[in-house]
TrEMBL record, chain A:
Protein name: NADH-quinone oxidoreductase subunit N
Record keywords, A-Z: Cell membrane, Membrane, NAD, Quinone, Translocase, Transmembrane, Transmembrane helix, Transport
Family indicated by similarity: Belongs to the complex I subunit 2 family.
Main location: membrane
Domain (NADH:quinone oxidoreductase/Mrp antiporter transmembrane) ranges: 170-463
Function: NDH-1 shuttles electrons from NADH, via FMN and iron-sulfur (Fe-S) centers, to quinones in the respiratory chain. The immediate electron acceptor for the enzyme in this species is believed to be a menaquinone. Couples the redox reaction to proton translocation (for every two electrons transferred, four hydrogen ions are translocated across the cytoplasmic membrane), and thus conserves the redox energy in a proton gradient.
Organism phylogeny: Bacteria, Bacillati, Actinomycetota, Actinomycetes, Pseudonocardiales
Subcellular location: Cell membrane; Endomembrane system; Membrane
From TrEMBL, chain B:
NADH:quinone oxidoreductase/Mrp antiporter transmembrane domain boundaries: 154-437
One Pfam family hit: Proton_antipo_M
NADH-Ubiquinone oxidoreductase (complex I) chain 5 N-terminal domain: residues covered: 85-135
Protein name: NADH dehydrogenase subunit L
Cellular component terms (Gene Ontology): endomembrane system; membrane
Record-level Gene Ontology MF annotations: NADH dehydrogenase (ubiquinone) activity; NADH dehydrogenase activity
Segments crossing the lipid bilayer: 20-38, 45-66, 102-122, 134-151, 227-243, 264-282, 298-318, 325-345, 393-415, 435-460, 481-506, 526-548, 630-650
Protein's cellular compartments: Endomembrane system; Membrane
A biological-process GO annotation: ATP synthesis coupled electron transport
Organism lineage string: Bacteria, Bacillati, Actinomycetota, Actinomycetes, Pseudonocardiales
Entry membrane topology: Multi-pass membrane protein
InterPro entries: NADHpl_OxRdtase_5_subgr, ND/Mrp_TM, NU5C-like, Proton_antipo_N
The entry's keywords: Membrane, Transmembrane, Transmembrane helix
Length: 529, 651
C-alpha cells in the first residue's frame, strides 16, 4: 500500500495533474482522433460517392487511416513520457500499455481490413447487399456487377476500432462503458452482414446483441455500485478508496463482480463465453477474424487496466475467484473443442481456452504479468487473423466449407494451404518455434513467479488436451483420403494473401526472435492518476 | 598386512621404457581398427597384421618385464598416467596404467598365449571367408583384456571388462548362421550382464563411500570403512567375477560358449578372459585381506569349492570334446577362486594355477581344435577314437597337457594344484578339512574325466571308420599344418615345465602386489598331501581305464543311465535352476509389465481420452443455441462470481 501511495506521490510531484480548464493536449490521442474522424468521413463516403467509386474509396480511406494512425502513434511513442500522461480531462490514460495495445490493435485491424476488403475469394465480397436477394441468383449477380461490393462494413470497422482504442485507454469507468458500446454496436451489425448462410449470420447478430446488451447491463450496474462505494468512477479514486476506507465492502465486491462479468463477457472467458461459438460461426469470416483478434485485445486491455489500477489493492480477495474462472474457461475451451465438427466453432472454443490462459497472465498483478499478457495478445491476434484468412479460402459451391469432414485429405490437393494451416494450428497449440509457445511460456512464467503454480499445472494440462483437436485437423488434412466431392481451395487475391502472409510471418518471427516485442511489452506499467 | 595397505605410498611414476606401456593397448587396438575399417581390401594380409600386432606387444611386454625385474622389489609398482578420463565434480577418473608384477604377469600370459593362438588361427581359420574379421575381433579382445589388467582403477578395469565381453560375444556368435551359436552368444552376453551389475554396484559403493575408484585411493582407504561396506563390496566384486569366470551360479554360459571357433575357446574361454575374475579378486587383495572381509572371503571359497565340484561332475558325463574341456575349465577356475579366497595364503597359488592352467588348457583346446580340424569338425568323442596314430604330434602334445592337468608328478599342474589343495587344508579346523577334501576329491574326478576323454579320442578302436560326418563326407583324419602344431608344441613345453619354474619364483615376484605368501601348516604335511593327491588322481584315472579302456564304447550315448549321470548330463540342472529362478520370473515380470502397460497405462490414457470425449459430448448439449439458456448460464456464472467474491471477503 505504501508503495502505491508513494508512487502516487511521486507521480504528482513530477507531473502535476493538468488543470481542468486547460485545453486538452491532443498529441497523445491523435491516433484515436484520426480513426474516429475517418469513420465519420467514411460514412460521408458511403452517402456521397457514386456506387462504383465506393469500394476503392473506402478501402483506400480505411487503409490510409490505419497507416496514418500508426505513424502518429510511432512519432508520439518516441517522445512520450515514460510514466504516461492523461488526456481529455483525465478520461484517457495514455501510458505504455495503452500505446502497446493501440499499436497491436492498429496492426491487427490492418490484417482484418485486408481480409474484409477482399473481393477475389467471394465475388462481390463476403457481405450482404440487400437482404431480400438470395445469393447465387440472377439478381445477386446483377448487383455484384453494378456495385462491386457492399461497403457499409468499412465505417463500422473504423468505429469499432476507435471504440476499442478508447476502451483500453479509458481512465474512468464511464468512459470505458461508452467505449464498450462504441465498439460493440458496430460489431453486432457486422456479424449480421454475411452474404452466404444469411439466417445463421442474422441469428448470430441477434444473439450477440441480446447477450451483449445483457452484459452491458451487468457492467453498468457494476459501475453504479462502485460509484456508490468510491464516490467516483475514476479508476485511481476507486483504487484509493479500496485501499483505505471504511465504506461498505459489499458495494465494492458486488460492483467489482458485476463489472468484471461485463468485461469477461467481451473477452469470451468461460462461463461467459456462450455467445462465442455461435457468433464466430455465423459471422462473415473476415468479421470473425476482426472480432476474435481485436475484441480480445481490447477486452483484455480493459481487464488488465481495471484489475491492475482500480482493484490492485483488493487482489487477495478477487484472485481466488478469478483462478476459478480461468480454470473453468480453459477446461470449457479445451474439452468442448474436442467434439466440434465445424472449423470456425473449433477455433471459437480454442479462443475460450486462450482467454483462460490470458486471464492467468492478467491476474498475476506484476509487471511480468502485464507484459506477458500484452505479448500473448499480440501473438494470439496475428495467429487468429491468419487462421481465419485460411479458413475463408476453403470453399465449395455453397460458400465456405467449414465442416471438418470436408477438410479431409486437403494436403493432397493444396499442400501449401495445408502447410500454412498446420503451422498456425501448431502456434495455437503452443509448439516451440511459433509465437504461441513463447506467449504461453512468458505467461506461465509470470504466473509461476507470482505463486500460481497449481494454476499453471492446470493450464498445461488444458493446453495438452487442446492440442488434441488442433492435431486432429492436421491428421485429417494429411492422413485421410480426400472426399470425392470435397471443397476447392480458392486462389486468394492480393489482400487475403497479404493478410495471411502478415499473420504467418509475425507468428514465425515472434516464435524465433521474440525479444524485441517482449521489450516493447515490458517498457512500462499503467499510469495511476 | 601393513605392507599391502600402504601400497599407495609405494606407487612409483613410470619412467623409461614403461612410459611406452600404452603401446600394449594401442598396438592390438590399431590392428583391430585397421582390419575392420579396411574391410575386404585387407583380406590378403589381415591375418598377418593381426598376428604381428600381438607379437609386437608380446615382445614389448618381455622388455618391460626385464626392465621391471631390474628394479628393487619395492619399486616395481609403477603407474603411467595417460589422461584424465572423467572429471565431473568430485568424481575424477584417471585413465592410467598400473605396471606391477601382477599386471605384468597377466600381460605376458595374454600376449604370449595370444600370439600363439593368433598363429594357430592362421591355419585353423584358413578356410573361413571372414578370417580377417576374425583377427580383428581377436585383436580387439587382446586390447581390451590388456586394458582390463593394466588399468589403474576400477573404472578402467570395467572398461576392459566390457570390452572383452563384447569381443567374447562377437566371437562366440562367429558362426552366425547357426542357431546354437547365436543363442550361445546371447546367453553369454546376458549372464555376463548379471555379473557386471555386481561389479558396477561395487564401483558405485566405492565412489559413494571412498570418493574415488582409483586402486591407489581405494586400497588406501578401504580399511577405514565399516564392515558392512567392505563385505558388500567384496561380495559384489565376487558376483562380477562369477559372471566373467563362469563360477557358480553363473557357470552355465561357459560350456555353451564353445560354439565359437576353437582358437577362441582356447584363448578367451580357457586361458585369459575367464580368469579375469581371479585377477579381479587377486587385484582387490588389500580388501579381501582385511580381517573385516572374513565373511566375504568365506563366500569366495564356497563359490570356488562348489564350482570346482560342479565342473568335475558334469565333465564326467558330457560327450562333446570341447564341452568336457569347458567344464574342466569351470572346475579349474573354481580351484583358482578357492585359492584366492584363502587370502594371503593362497593368492600366489591362485595366480600360479592360473598361469599353468593357461598353458595346458590352451594346449588341450588347440589339440581338440586340431582333432576337429582333421575330422570334419566332429566334436562327439563317441564318434572319434584311435586317433593317436593318425595325429601323432597332436596326440603327444595333448597327452602332455592332459598329464599336466591331472597333476602328474613334476608336470606343471602338480605344482600348482597341489599347492592349492595344501593351502586349503592348512586353513585349519573343519573348514580346512571340508575345502581340502573337496579339492582332493576334485583332483580324483579330474583325472577320471580327462582319462575318459583321452581314451575315447586317441586310444581304443577307430569308431569313425564306418561313419560319415553330418554333411555326408567320410572322415580322413590327418595331422594339421605347422602353424597349428607349432603353438601346440610350445604350449606343451609350457605345460611340462612352467610349474617347476614358476612355483619357485612366482610368490616372491608377486609379493609387491599380493603381499608376502603366508605359509601355514595344517593337520597334514605337504608331502602327505602330495602323495594323497597323486594317489587319488591315479585312482580316478584307473577307474576311467577300467570303465572305458577295456570295453568297446557305443557310438551313440547310452540312454538308460543312472540318476547321477542324467543329472550331470543336464548340467546338474544349472540351466533349469537359472530358468526357474531368473528366466521364468523375468518372463512373468515382463508379461506383468506388458499387462500393466496395456491395461493400466494405455487404459489410463485411453480412459482419460474417452472421459474427456464423453464429457465434451455431454457438455456440448449445454450449448443449445437458445439465447435464453445462454443468458441463464451467464446469470448463473455472475451470481457465482459475486457470491464467491463476497464470501471471500466476509467469510
Amino acid at each position: 500500500m505504501s508503495v502505491m501511495s508513494s508512487v502516487l506521490l511521486l507521480a504528482q510531484e513530477q507531473a502535476p495533474a493538468p488543470a481542468r480548464a486547460e485545453a486538452p493536449p491532443l498529441t497523445a490521442i491523435w491516433p484515436i482522433l484520426i480513426v474516429l474522424g475517418a469513420a465519420c468521413l467514411s460514412v460521408l463516403f458511403e452517402a456521397l460517392l457514386p456506387k462504383h467509386l465506393r469500394w476503392p474509396g473506402q478501402v483506400v480511406l480505411t487503409l490510409l487511416t490505419i497507416v496514418a494512425a500508426g505513424v502518429k502513434l510511432v512519432t508520439y511513442v518516441s517522445g512520450a513520457p515514460a510514466a504516461g500522461e492523461t488526456a481529455m480531462f483525465g478520461t484517457l490514460a495514455v501510458d505504455r500499455p495503452a500505446l502497446f495495445l493501440w499499436g497491436t490493435l492498429l496492426a491487427l485491424s490492418l490484417g482484418a481490413v485486408l481480409l474484409i476488403a477482399d473481393r477475389s475469394v467471394e465475388p462481390g465480397g463476403a457481405f450482404v447487399a440487400t437482404a431480400a436477394i438470395r445469393p447465387g441468383t440472377v439478381q445477386d449477380r446483377a448487383q455484384v456487377g453494378s456495385t462491386g461490393m457492399q461497403t457499409e462494413v468499412f465505417p463500422l470497422t473504423l468505429f469499432a476500432l476507435g471504440g476499442m482504442m478508447v476502451f483500453c485507454a479509458a481512465n474512468d469507468l464511464l468512459t470505458m462503458f461508452v467505449a464498450l458500446e462504441v465498439l460493440s454496436l458496430p460489431l453486432y451489425l457486422m456479424c449480421g452482414l454475411a452474404r452466404r448462410r444469411r439466417l445463421l449470420s442474422q441469428e448470430a447478430a441477434v444473439k450477440y446483441f441480446l447477450l451483449g446488451a445483457f452484459a452491458s447491463a451487468f457492467f453498468l450496474y457494476g459501475v453504479a455500485l462502485l460509484y456508490g462505494y468510491a464516490g467516483s468512477v475514476r479508476l485511481a479514486d476507486i483504487s484509493e478508496a479500496a485501499a483505505g476506507s471504511d465504506r461498505s465492502d459489499t458495494l465494492l465486491f458486488a460492483g467489482m463482480g458485476l463489472l468484471v462479468v461485463g468485461l469477461l463477457f467481451k473477452a469470451a472467458v468461460g462461463p461467459f463465453h456462450t455467445w462465442t461459438p455461435d457468433v464466430y460461426q455465423g459471422a462473415p469470416t473476415p468479421v470473425t477474424a476482426f472480432m476474435a483478434a481485436c475484441t480480445k485485445v481490447a477486452a483484455f486491455g480493459g481487464i488488465l487496466r481495471v484489475l491492475q489500477v482500480a482493484l490492485e489493492s483488493t487482489q487477495w480477495e478477487w484472485r481466488g475467484v478469478l483462478w476459478g474462472v480461468a480454470i473453468v474457461s480453459m477446461v470449457i475451451g479445451a474439452v468442448l473443442g474436442l467434439t466440434q465438427t465445424d472449423v470456425k466453432r473449433m477455433i471459437a472454443y480454442s479462443s475460450v481456452a486462450h482467454a483462460g490462459f490470458l486471464l492467468i497472465g492478467s491476474i498475476a498483478v506484476t509487471e511480468k504479468g502485464l507484459s506477458s499478457t500484452l505479448f500473448y495478445l499480440l501473438t494470439y491476434g496475428f495467429t487468429t487473423i491468419a487462421t481465419f484468412g485460411v479458413i475463408s479460402l476453403v470453399r465449395d459451391s455453397s460458400g465456405e466449407a467449414t465442416h471438418l469432414s470436408q477438410w479431409a485429405g486437403l494436403a493432397k490437393r493444396s499442400p501449401l494451404l495445408a502447410a500454412v494451416f498446420t503451422f498456425l494450428l501448431l502456434a495455437l497449440a503452443g509448439i516451440p518455434l511459433t509465437s504461441g509457445f513463447v506467449g504461453k511460456f512468458v505467461v506461465f512464467e509470470a504466473a509461476l513467479s507470482d505463486g500460481m503454480g497449481p494454476l499453471v499445472v492446470v493450464a498445461l494440462v488444458a493446453s495438452a488436451v487442446a492440442a488434441f483437436f488442433y492435431l486432429r485437423v492436421i491428421v485429417l488434412m494429411y492422413f485421410s483420403e480426400p472426399a470425392a466431392d470435397g471443397p476447392t481451395v480458392t486462389v486468394p487475391g492480393a489482400f487475403t494473401t497479404a493478410a495471411i502472409t502478415l499473420g504467418v510471418i509475425i507468428t514465425l518471427l515472434l516464435g524465433i526472435a521474440p525479444a524485441f516485442a517482449l521489450d516493447w511489452a515490458s517498457s512500462g506499467v499503467f499510469a495511476i492518476r | 598386512m601393513t605392507g599391502t595397505i600402504n601400497l599407495a605410498a609405494e606407487v612409483q611414476q613410470a619412467s623409461g621404457i614403461a612410459n611406452l606401456a600404452w603401446l600394449l593397448l594401442a598396438l592390438p587396438a590399431l590392428g583391430a581398427a585397421v582390419l575392420l575399417i579396411a574391410g575386404r581390401r585387407a583380406d590378403k594380409w589381415g591375418h598377418l597384421l593381426g598376428s604381428a600386432t600381438v607379437i609386437a606387444a608380446f615382445v614389448y611386454a618381455v622388455l618391460l618385464f626385464f626392465d621391471t625385474t631390474s628394479l628393487a622389489a619395492d619399486d616395481r609398482t609403477r603407474e603411467a598416467h595417460l589422461f584424465d578420463w572423467i572429471s565431473i565434480h568430485s568424481l575424477n577418473v584417471e585413465f592410467g596404467l598400473r605396471i606391477d608384477p601382477l599386471s605384468l604377469t597377466f600381460v605376458l600370459l595374454i600376449t604370449g598365449v595370444g600370439s600363439l593362438i593368433h598363429i594357430y588361427s592362421i591355419g585353423y581359420m584358413s578356410d573361413d571367408r571372414d578370417r580377417r574379421r576374425f583377427f580383428a575381433y581377436l585383436n580387439l579382445f587382446v586390447s581390451a583384456m590388456l586394458l582390463l589388467v593394466l588399468g589403474n582403477g576400477f573404472v578402467t578395469l570395467y572398461f576392459g571388462w566390457e570390452g572383452v565381453g563384447l569381443a567374447s560375444y562377437l566371437l562366440i556368435g562367429w558362426y552366425q548362421g547357426k542357431d546354437f551359436a547365436a543363442t550361445a552368444a546371447k546367453k553369454a552376453f546376458l549372464m555376463n550382464r548379471v555379473g557386471d551389475v555386481g561389479l558396477a554396484l561395487a564401483i558405485f559403493l566405492m565412489f559413494k563411500n571412498i570418493g574415488s575408484t582409483q586402486y591407489s585411493v581405494v586400497f588406501d582407504k578401504i580399511g577405514e570403512q565399516s564392515t558392512g561396506v567392505i563385505v558388500a563390496i567384496g561380495i559384489l566384486l565376487l558376483l562380477g567375477a562369477c559372471g566373467k569366470s563362469g563360477q557358480f551360479p553363473l557357470q552355465a554360459w561357459l560350456p555353451d560358449a564353445m560354439a565359437g571357433p576353437t582358437p577362441v575357446s582356447a584363448l578367451i574361454h580357457a586361458a585369459t578372459m575367464v580368469t579375469a575374475g581371479v585377477y579381479l579378486i587377486a587385484r582387490s587383495n588389500p580388501l579381501y585381506s582385511l580381517p573385516q572381509a572374513e565373511d566375504a572371503r568365506l563366500v569366495v571359497m564356497i563359490v570356488g569349492a562348489v564350482t570346482l565340484l560342479i565342473g568335475c561332475v558334469i565333465g564326467c558325463a558330457y560327450d562333446d570334446f570341447k564341452k568336457v574341456l569347458a567344464y574342466s575349465t569351470v572346475s579349474q577356475i573354481g580351484y583358482m577362486i578357492l585359492a584366492v579366497g584363502l587370502g594371503p595364503a593362497g593368492y600366489a597359488f591362485g595366480i600360479l594355477h592360473l598361469l599353468t592352467h593357461g598353458f595346458f588348457k590352451a594346449g588341450l583346446f588347440l589339440g581338440a581344435g586340431s582333432v576337429m580340424h582333421g575330422m570334419n569338425d566332429e566334436g562327439d568323442i563317441r564318434r572319434l577314437g584311435g586317433l593317436a596314430r593318425k595325429m601323432p604330434i597332436t596326440f603327444i602334445t595333448w597327452t602332455l597337457g592332459y598329464l599336466a592337468l591331472i597333476g602328474f608328478p613334476f608336470l606343471s599342474g602338480y605344482f600348482s594344484k597341489d599347492a592349492i589343495i595344501a593351502a586349503a587344508f592348512s586353513e585349519g579346523g573343519s573348514r580346512g578339512w571340508v575345502f581340502g577334501g573337496i579339492a582332493l576329491l576334485g583332483a580324483g574326478l579330474t583325472a577320471f574325466y580327462m582319462t575318459r576323454l583321452l581314451i575315447l579320442v586317441f586310444l581304443g578302436k577307430p569308431r569313425w571308420e564306418n561313419l560319415k560326418s553330418e554333411d555326408g563326407r567320410a572322415y580322413h583324419p590327418h595331422e594339421s599344418g605347422w602353424t597349428m602344431t607349432l603353438p601346440m608344441i610350445v604350449l606343451a613345453v609350457g605345460s611340462v615345465g612352467a610349474g617347476a619354474v614358476l612355483s619357485g619364483m612366482l610368490p616372491e615376484w608377486l609379493s609387491p602386489t599380493l603381499g608376502e605368501l603366508v605359509e601355514e601348516h595344517g593337520p597334514l604335511s605337504h608331502t602327505v598331501i602330495a602323495i594323497l593327491t597323486v594317489a587319488i588322481s591315479a585312482i580316478g584315472a584307473g577307474i576311467a581305464f577300467a570303465l572305458f579302456g577295456r570295453r568297446e564304447q557305443p557310438v551313440t550315448r547310452p540312454q538308460r543311465v543312472s540318476f547321477p549321470v542324467r543329472a550331470a548330463r543336464a548340467d546338474l540342472y544349472g540351466n533349469h535352476l537359472n530358468e526357474a529362478l531368473f528366466a521364468r520370473p523375468g518372463v512373468w515380470l515382463t508379461r506383468f509389465l506388458v499387462f500393466v502397460d496395456n491395461r493400466g497405462v494405455d487404459g489410463l490414457v485411453n480412459g482419460i481420452a474417452a472421459g474427456l470425449g464423453g464429457s465434451s459430448g455431454r457438455l456440448r448439449r449445454l450449448q443449445t443455441g437458445f439465447v435464453r439458456s445462454y443468458a441463464l448460464s451467464m446469470l448463473g456464472g455472475s451470481i457465482l462470481v459475486i457470491a464467491a467474491l463476497l464470501m471471500v471477503r466476509f467469510a
